[in-house]
Amino acid sequence: MKGWPGEPDMEYDVLMADGEAAVNAGKPITDVIFDFGNVLVYWDPVAVMTPRYSDELVEQFLDKDISGFYHINDELDCGMSNDDGVALMRERYGDKWADMLQYYLDNFVDSLTGVVPGARVLINDLKAAGVHVWGLSNWQKDLFPIALDNFDILRSLDDRVVSGYVSLRKPNKDIYEFALQQFGIDASGAVFVDDKAMNIVGANNAGIRGVRFKDSRALRALLI
Questions:
Q1: 3-state secondary structure at position 83
Q2: What is the pLDDT of residues 165-196, one digit of tens each?
């Protein structure tokens, strides 16, 4: 099975304010917090692997039940070094998958295939309208500098929290609370944008309204 486990059913491009976030439904939006991967910058691990490996082998590598890729990726996102991640995959899943993981990590830049269309203009327009823009992403500390160096859209945010540096990870409530504190903002005026439904649930648990992202134009219309 590809992807992370535990994804709940959730509509795209709809403002969600369940649980602890319900009290903030309808309040003015003063702050928008963006995830990075596939919200601001496209991330596609297949793009790294296809030059060297067959489609069948890449599909197996990205199946967490076969290679454990997404399980190891979670550990990396929570602060584990790349070297320790490869060693852990070797121990748990074997040399073949560990060697593929090493290749993926060594060529990670190829997984970042461009800025999501509309994202740059949306951020600039939000800032011009007086809305603060922030970043909150699960990302390995050994790999995030590659993204930061290559995409100025990430540098244009007012501030950001990256999981690998703080040893906290979405969708756990504590990283959202950490971000609110670091940014100096209140959950009542915040909206979190992420492509994964589980992370919107996590934001709601911290009192932050959320949008499961799919389309920049739809997000723009919703925020307006």
A1: helix
A2: 999 999 999 999 999 999 999 999 999 999 99
Are β-strands 209-212 and 112-115 bridged in parallel, bridged antiparallel, or unpaired? Answer: unpaired
pLDDT for 141-160, tens place per residue?
999 999 999 999 999 999 99
Structure tokens at 168: 């906290």
Contacts 24+ apart (CB under 8 A), 18-23: 18/201, 18/204, 19/204, 19/205, 20/204, 20/205, 20/206, 20/207, 21/187, 21/203, 21/204, 21/205, 21/206, 21/207, 21/208, 21/209, 21/210, 23/188, 23/207
Of 114, 120, 122, the C-alpha closest to 218 is 122
Residue 117 tokens, joined:
């269309």
Q: How many CB atoms lie within 10 A of CB 152?
A: 10
| Burial of residue 178, with CB atoms counted within 10 A of its CB: 0-12 exposed, 13-18 middle, 19 or more buried | middle
pTM of the model: 0.95
